[in-house]
Write a structure and sequence with these properties.
This protein is of the alpha/beta class. It has 2 domains: about 40 residues; about 140 residues, Glutaredoxin (3-Layer(aba) Sandwich), CATH 3.40.30. Helices cover about 50% and strands about 15% of the residues. The protein has 7 helices and 5 strands; from the N terminus they run H-H-E-H-E-H-H-E-H-E-E-H. The protein is globular and about 35 Å long.
Length: about 180
């Protein structure tokens, strides 16, 4: 490396060397800016709470705090591996309609079977899945929720509009509380 640099210096390569350094620094700065924009553009953050990693209420408290730090509104999603509508919903999150519907959300996903007792104790009890509960700053349900019955067939053109209305209403309500 020293030999290469010395050769450039001997042959008037000082300016060339400076251009390479400037170009490298510019590329690094632009790369950082693009990375920040990509994170900011991520419409939905999904966190999966695994059983055995702690008590549900403590984990919810942690995730609600994380949502607030990211300027997102938290929602608890109850799902299950055997639930076909749940699988279709998860698979559709990359769809532009769904990305738009979930904009600004922080989804805390839990398995209905794994967390059944703790969910009931925490007030997240619902007979149908998938279901999304609005969560307050104390990690408790606000009373607002939406389930798969709100959209019929589990395809983005059906799911996105009611989910978008629900999330937008809850995001506005959360802003009004603060």
């Amino acid at each position: 490396m020293l030999y290469y640099r010395d050769m450039h210096l001997q042959h008037g390569g000082v300016m060339h060397h400076r251009r390479i350094i400037r170009a490298t620094l510019l590329a690094a700065l632009l790369g950082t800016a693009f990375a920040r924009a990509a994170v900011a553009a991520e419409p939905v953050k999904v966190v999966v709470l695994e059983p055995g990693t702690g008590e549900l209420v403590s984990l919810l408290d942690r995730e609600v705090a994380s949502a607030a730090a990211q300027h997102r509104v938290p929602f608890l999603q109850i799902t299950a591996e055997w639930c076909v509508p749940c699988k279709k919903l998860r698979a559709s999150l990359g769809d532009p309609l769904m990305q738009d519907a979930f904009a600004g959300t922080y989804i805390i996903r839990v398995d209905a079977d794994a967390w059944k007792t703790e969910l009931k104790k925490a007030g997240f009890d619902h007979p149908a899945i998938p279901v999304f509960f609005a969560v307050d700053s104390s990690a408790r349900p606000t009373g607002a929720k939406i389930d798969g019955g709100a959209w019929g067939e589990d395809i983005p053109p059906n799911m996105a509009p009611p989910l978008k209305r629900f999330f937008a209403d809850q995001i506005a309500a959360a802003a009004a509380r603060h």
